[in-house]
Specification:
Blueprint: E1 6-10, H1 15-26, E2 30-35, E3 47-50, H2 56-66, E4 70-73, H3 80-85, H4 87-108, E5 113-117, H5 134-153, E6 156-162, E7 164-166, H6 174-186, E8 193-198, E9 202-203, E10 205-207, H7 208-221, E11 227-230, E12 236-237, H8 238-247, E13 254-259, H9 272-276, H10 285-297
Parallel strand pairs: 1-2, 1-4, 2-3, 4-5, 5-6, 6-11, 7-10, 8-13
Antiparallel strand pairs: 9-12
Length: 302
Amino acid sequence: MNPKPKMLITGASGFTGQHACEHFSKLNYDITAVTRNQTSNQGYLFQVEPCELTSKNSVFQLIEKVKPDYLLHLAGINHVNKSWKEPILTIETNFLSTLYLLDAVRQIKPSCKIITIGSSLQFNPDEIANLEHPYSLSKTLQVMISQAWEKLFNMNIVIAQPSNIIGPGRSKGVTSIFATKIVQMEKNKLDKVLVVNNLTTRRDFIDVRDVVKAFEVLFNKGVVGEIYKISSGKTHSLGEVVQIYKTLTDVDFKIEPLTTDVDKQIIDENPFKLFKLGWNPTLSIHCSLTDTLNYFRLQDLH
């Protein structure tokens, strides 16, 4: 009997990481879930390993111990505002952790298949004038080092670029924030008012369960060095999101936009490369928002 393929998932305690661990565990991978802090293995179907990914030695020891066949690198800081407050920490977390992981794999298990995560907010390095925040810089550097290590050392690295990931689970995304507040309204713990920055802001929302299925496709069919956008291919305004939530609750809450200016920002999220590999999203935004709201209804919200 062949042993299970070993998969290392960083950022395993995060929103997408938890879904990824569950998904690949069901596919019979031997999962090592990497977290920043010590976590008990009790209740998990996989091994949990604490590791400070900004420590070169710690990362080397982790890769040497696990010797993964697959690496899904989800760990990082994914917050624009935090990047302004802590730019060095953001770059260390997103760039250095990626560099240390890739180089440890290069030395110990060069055949490992790797997915690193880019961002729609990264910028073209040839157009430095368009750089808007430290987060964008950190993600651009992360993608550049991934492409460089693939090119220089012939490593098996694919870059995924998810859009706005939504769905059931604890997330810092806007749909989860809205759901949390609506549930608090349902429990009479919050005034029946939902404050929204801008109802015209449009985003491509993709369910986390479709995202982890895309990772599966990329491990099996992704072309090394390529960047694959993971998205629904459709955009919805925050106003549309709020109106869907209104149909899912008996609470007649008031909507208060902070600005009435029309947001004209357009971000290309066309996932045509993934479509060509046979992947398609299966969960509608209505389904995602329903499951998100039901998830928070089951939580102890304060």
